[in-house]
Amino acid sequence: MLRRILGGSAARAPGDIAPSRHLIDLRTVVKDYVTDAGSFRALRGVDLQVDAGEFLAVVGKSGCGKSTLMNMMTGIDRATAGDVWVGGTHLNHLSEGRTAEWRGRTVGVIFQFFQLLPTLTVVENVMLPMDFGGLWTPAEREERAMSLLEQVEMVDQARKLPSATSGGQQQRVAIARALANDPPILVADEPTGNLDSATAEAVIRLFDALVAAGKTIVMVTHDREIAAHARRTVHMVDGDLLDGMLPDEPADADRAAAGELAPDPREPARA
Q1: Is the pTM of this model over 0.70?
Q2: Distance (Å, rounded) from C-alpha 88 to C-alpha 263?
Q3: Per-residue pLDDT tens over the stretch 54-89
Q4: Are 158 and 146 in contact (CB under 8 A)?
Q5: How many domains does the chain contain in total?
């Protein structure tokens, strides 16, 4: 049975906030944006806890707040109210520099459009987070990048530019890059949205293997079939979070094809 996910308490002064025992812990998180059309509340007091080793899917239609939720978990954006704990760190009051340092070591982000740098080779793209984080020596970085590319079956493409590889191959490279600094958490925003069904299934099998190896994955998706591969699913509706999947709701792609769905202009574009 669907239910709204509850359990958070009212926001308290920073000194009174108890550390979290969960790997990801969002407590009564509110996010407001000011747009040309006025103020818009993207998250309405969301509570969500994710433990180590989980594979969680966050499902919902365009504009429901999925990407905003992802931005809270990754420190890309800040909560208007409520508390965000990830990997034992309270993100609310970190400076931008401290947040970037924390993100580089704690969270690997996988985007729908890959976000690979076109002028760098595949292996150089995977090495980049290690360079930014100052982790490993230059020789060790290349060795580690090649090992990660081998895990995602892309080592034979290592010296090519991203443009010389397919969309599915680029997503595999993006996953290797997200793993570069060995973060405990991967957050994937529509990771199969630009892939054909066979390639999407291959990416999900890779996610399954990563979870089996101890990673925690939060996957944002509109695709109910892809979400079914996760071990737990939550559903976003107008900034609220429900536990489980809404019944009898057609997929976004089907509704869009029928002309029933237009993008919600209120939710900011993805990073």
Answers
A1: yes
A2: 35
A3: 999 999 888 899 989 999 999 999 999 999 999 999
A4: yes
A5: 1
Q: In whole angstroms, how far apart are CA 103 and each of 29, 40, 99, 127, 157? A: 19, 27, 6, 16, 27
Q: Which residue type sits at 232?
A: R
Residue 209 and residue 227 in contact, taking contact as beta carbons nearer than 8 Å: no
Those residues whose C-beta lies under 8 Å from the C-beta of residue 118, and which sit 6 or more positions away, are 161, 162, 163
Residue 208 forms part of a structural domain:
yes
Beta partners for 26? 48, 84
CA 176/CA 168 separation, integer angstroms: 13
Do the bridges between strand 24-35 and strand 38-50 make them parallel or antiparallel, or are there none, so unpaired? antiparallel
161 occurs within a structural domain:
yes
Residue 249 confidence (pLDDT): 52
- Angle among Cα 119, 159, 166 to the nearest 5 degrees reads 75
Across the chain, mean pLDDT equals 84
Which tens digit of pLDDT belongs to each residue from 21-55?
Answer: 899 999 999 999 988 888 899 999 999 999 999 99
| C-alpha span between 201 and 195 (Å, rounded) | 9
Q: Residue 78 is part of which domain span? A: 3-7+22-257
Which residues does residue 48 pair with via DSSP β-bridges, in sequence order?
26
Average pLDDT over residues 4-13: 40
Measured between alpha carbons, how far is residue 121 from residues 128, 169, 170, 181 in Å?
11, 13, 11, 18
Domain annotation covers residue 165: yes
Give a yes or no: residue 263 inside a domain.
Answer: no
CATH number at residue 78: 3.40.50.300
